[in-house]
């Protein structure tokens, strides 16, 4: 299996898992609202669960979104430019995005390790907070890899676009 195929499948799997997390967050909210209405008792820790699931899902969606060029792009400023210049700028932007992804990954891992070392937990359910950093780290690492593959031009030809799906 090639690196491009592995990264693409990873991004797809992460996006699917992010979708499952959002469905779980919606279910937790619905159960909590129903519990409040029928039994005057919400789902314990519902805010913690929804917050953790939504934060993880955001990071897990990022690689796939970049893979299929789903990010918002303001291209009217360079619409006049030759295609070669546009490709070169796209590679520079991807290089900057990769660097940003890896810096955020570095800091996220450092923060997660601090949370684990100090035993930080959520208030109600006592969920170890470092667990919330794991999906973020995986998502940022995959996003950085996709950006680097775009810089190298190896993912360009075979990646679907948002319009071409």
The global form is elongated
- Kindly estimate the percentage of residues that lie in beta strands according to DSSP: under 5%
Provide mean pLDDT, rounded.
91
- Structure class: mainly alpha
Oligomer: single chain
Q: What's the order of the H and E elements?
A: HHHH
Number of domains: 1
Range of helix content: 55-70%
Please give the radius of gyration in angstroms. 19 Å
- Which residues sit in consecutive blocks of at least 5 with pLDDT less than 50? none
What's the number of extended β-strand segments?
0
Q: Quote the distance from N terminus to C terminus.
A: 23 Å
Number of helices: 4
Q: Profile the largest sheet.
A: none
Helix-strand layout with pairing:
Layout: H1 3-39, H2 46-67, H3 83-118, H4 133-152
Helix pairs in contact: 1-2, 1-4, 2-4, 3-4
What attributes does this structure have?
165 residues; mainly alpha
Précis, in short:
By secondary structure, the chain is an all-alpha fold. Helix content is 70%, strand content 0%. It has one domain (3-152).
């Amino acid at each position: 299996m090639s690196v491009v195929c592995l990264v693409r499948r990873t991004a797809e799997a992460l996006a699917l898992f992010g979708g499952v997390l959002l469905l779980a967050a919606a279910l937790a909210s619905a159960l909590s609202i129903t519990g409040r209405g029928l039994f005057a008792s919400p789902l314990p820790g519902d805010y913690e669960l929804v917050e953790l699931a939504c934060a993880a899902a955001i990071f897990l969606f990022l690689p796939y979104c970049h893979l299929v060029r789903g990010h918002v792009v303001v291209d009217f400023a360079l619409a006049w430019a030759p295609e070669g210049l546009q490709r070169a700028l796209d590679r520079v932007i991807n290089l900057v995005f990769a660097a940003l992804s890896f810096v955020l990954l570095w800091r996220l891992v450092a923060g997660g390790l601090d949370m684990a070392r100090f035993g930080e937990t959520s208030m109600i359910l006592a969920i170890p907070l470092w667990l919330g950093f794991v999906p973020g780290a995986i998502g940022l690492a995959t996003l950085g890899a996709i950006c680097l593959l775009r810089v190298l031009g190896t993912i360009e030809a075979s990646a679907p676009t948002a319009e071409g799906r």
